[in-house]
Amino acid sequence: MSHSSDWQRHDAEVRIREVLDAAKARGAQRVADIDGRFLITFEPVKQTLEELFTKSGPFADDDLDA
C-alpha cells in the first residue's frame, strides 16, 4: 500500500480498513469526493487520571525500595 494520505472516494470505500488504519498510524487521511473532500482522523480514547495512575508503571514494586 502507498503511504499517501490522499484517496479517491471509490478506492477509500473499497479499502476502508486501510484508510482507517492509516489514519490511526499516520494521521489524517483525505478522501476526494466530486464536490469536496472528507477528512478522516483518529482520536484515541482519553483516560482519567484515576485510570492512568491505577495501572502498573514501568517499575516493579521491588525497584522502588532502592
How would you describe this protein?
Strands 1-2-3 form a three-stranded mixed sheet. The chain is of the alpha+beta class. It is built from three helices and three strands, in the order βααββα.
Low-confidence stretches: none
**What's the main sheet like?**
3 strands, mixed
What proportion strand? 15-25%
Count of strand segments: 3
Residue-averaged pLDDT, rounded? Answer: 86
Distance between the termini: 49 Å
What keywords describe this structure?
66 residues, alpha+beta, three-stranded mixed β-sheet, 3 helices
Short description:
With 66 residues, the protein is α+β, with helices and mostly antiparallel strands. The protein is built from three helices and three strands; from the N terminus they run βααββα.
List the topology elements:
Elements: E1 6-8, H1 9-14, H2 16-26, E2 29-33, E3 36-40, H3 49-54
Parallel strand pairs: 1-2
Antiparallel strand pairs: 2-3
